[in-house]
Amino acid sequence: MTKDGLVPWPEDLAYAYRTAECWRNRPLGAYLWEWADRWGPQVAVVDGDRRLTYRELAELADGLAERLREHGLRRGDSVLVQLPNCWEFVVVMFACFRLGVAPVLMLPQHREHELSAIAAHVGVRALVVPDTWRDYDHQALAHRVAAGLPGRTAVLVVGAGSRAPSVDVRRLIQAEGDVEARRQRLDDLAPSGADVALFLLSGGTTAVPKVIARTHDDYEYNIRRCADVCRFGRDTVYLTVLPVGHNFPLANPGVLGTLYSGGRVVLLPSPRPDLAFAAIEAERVTVASVVPAVAVRWMAAAADCDRDLSSLRHVHIGGSMLSPQLAAAIGPALGCELQQVYGMAEGLVCYTPIGAPPEVAHGTQGRPISPFDELLVVEPGTSRPVPASAVGELLTRGPYTPRGYYRAPDQNAVSYTAAGWYRTGDLVRITPAGDVVVCGRIKDVINRAGEKISAGEVETLAQELPEIAEAAAIPVPDPVVGERVCLVVRLQPRRRLTLDRLAAALTARGLAAFKVPERLVVLDALPHTPVGKPDKKALRLMLRRDA
Length: 547
Ligand code: OOB
Fold this sequence. Notes:
By secondary structure, the protein is of the alpha/beta class. It is built from 19 helices and 27 strands. Bound molecules: 5'-O-[(R)-(benzoyloxy)(hydroxy)phosphoryl]adenosine (OOB).
């Protein structure tokens, strides 16, 4: 690891990736103007009544970039961005890309617990939040978080409710002045392709979420390959319903892949079927990406829906397990072709190809988007390969899979092998044709509608409660969201605990709502493994028996 906390790719591989033009040594901000020059008057982003052309997007992003510079942000700095799906998100992202300032992407559902830990870990210079979102005061949240950080951390607020000492982002998003001169000034300040473009959160298995630094070069390659595999083009109209801070809707191909291809991005604040179907009809949406839980809701709603969904050509589904039966039913229900995607914020992305036969389209999670992706299936927890087509843990390396988490040497010793493979923690098999089938996982996470919840994070926080002596967070299967968090506890002597009290206590400690246990089981004693950890396999079996 270098002193700045990044783990570089080995020099010989970096050379190979550059020579093969995976990496183009060009920052993402430079593409913005390339697109504006090519597709200037075309609509790039739609958010309700607001429609931004490619030209406007470039001008507004440059205007904001210059203002952010006046507020002291410089190449190499980072800012925490917690915004819902809105047009300002896109402008903020590109303003940051132009300056070489790296956004750290959080979800609107995150609270003090997550924001404080990540902001401190990365050392952000500013927080960008909405004024309120779903009746929650993010502006106040951001000021609480900022107050707990060393140094001065600016709070930038998107929304009419912005009040001093917050900085009002909408007032900064202005394209006044000499556009060409500003473009030149910012071009002169541009970061290098090897700089960090953005930070993504890992679903995480540890008490504190881990952070992945993605470079301009690696992310651009990821976007380019995804857009190519999914055949995005100028006629693509992409509907964004998942939180855009996730890698999947942001860049696989998602929002950035659409802009890369000259298409149109439609942003919606939620995946509610009535809103989504109205947008599909109104904007003639051609492609959307969803997690299986959302697909199920859409299928049910499509059965008696009077909206015209005929423009929809593809739906991308990934993020959590999808059964072949459900996969086969989605296309007919929504009148489009399904593409499965298996990906991760850490890098690797697989897609089922357009036009794949049913056994591939429904029965696999696709093949890597790049010929430079390396996949190795091993006996779990080792580096010993399993026989061809056998199930094992997937390890991966490649030009858009960084070699380690940011500033996390201890974690990296566990999550990455000495030879630089990322241990996905997923159990897979690879078919003779090279398609990945996800069979399960060995990592200690709960996958709730595609949101990854670290069991360790929930347990650590729960164990701080005075009632709890020992806690284990385990997934319980759920027909709607796939899995929910169940907390199994042993209480302190003479203490009592209800689910309501547990939920209230964890919420008060600033834990995001989607991580709060939805079931509580109190035992006199937890079963243990030989090394003395709670035996989660035994607990899962026990709960299944009792269900
Ligand atoms: C996506 O990214 P993350 O970082 O939220 O989560 C990655 C993990 C994977 O390691 C795997 O455990 C699970 O999510 N996962 C799937 C899956 N796709 C992801 N499990 C079963 N089937 C699938 N199709 O979730 C993500 C990132 C980019 C594109 C798509 C999903």
